[in-house]
Amino acid sequence: MTTIVITGGTDGMGRALARTYLDRGDTVVIVGRDPAKAATLPQAHFIPADLSLVAENRRVTEEINDRYPAVHALVLCAR
User: Fold this and answer.
1) Residues 6+ apart with CB under 8 A from 51
2) What is the pTM of this model?
3) What is the CATH number of domain 3-76?
4) Which positions ≥6 away from 61 have C-beta within 8 Å?
5) Alpha helices, DSSP H only, in 27-78?
């Protein structure tokens, strides 16, 4: 199984990609600001974050490293 991390995965192109990878059976981690939007993709793992802040980027990176032994792809869709 492949693990995909998608920033901006709760809206637009990021959400569409998350849905595609989930439908393929991949593990999808979405990073975004809105838990309500993330809840519409219940199979995805959600990490809430405001990536406009450097500290949040560091925290998210550490959380991903701690929780997932391998990340096979990183998709950057956050604006």
Assistant:
1) 7, 31, 57, 60, 78
2) 0.94
3) 3.40.50.720
4) none
5) 35-38, 54-67
Residue in the block written with tokens 């439908």: 23
Q: What is the DSSP letter of 72?
A: -
The CA distance from 52 to 67, in Å, is: 22
Residue range 12-28, pLDDT digits in tens: 999 999 999 999 999 99
Q: What is the distance between the alpha carbons of residues 21 and 58, in angstroms, rounded to a whole number?
A: 25
- Give me the residue spans of the domains in the chain: 3-76
The C-alpha atoms of residue 11 and residue 17 are separated, in whole angstroms, by 10
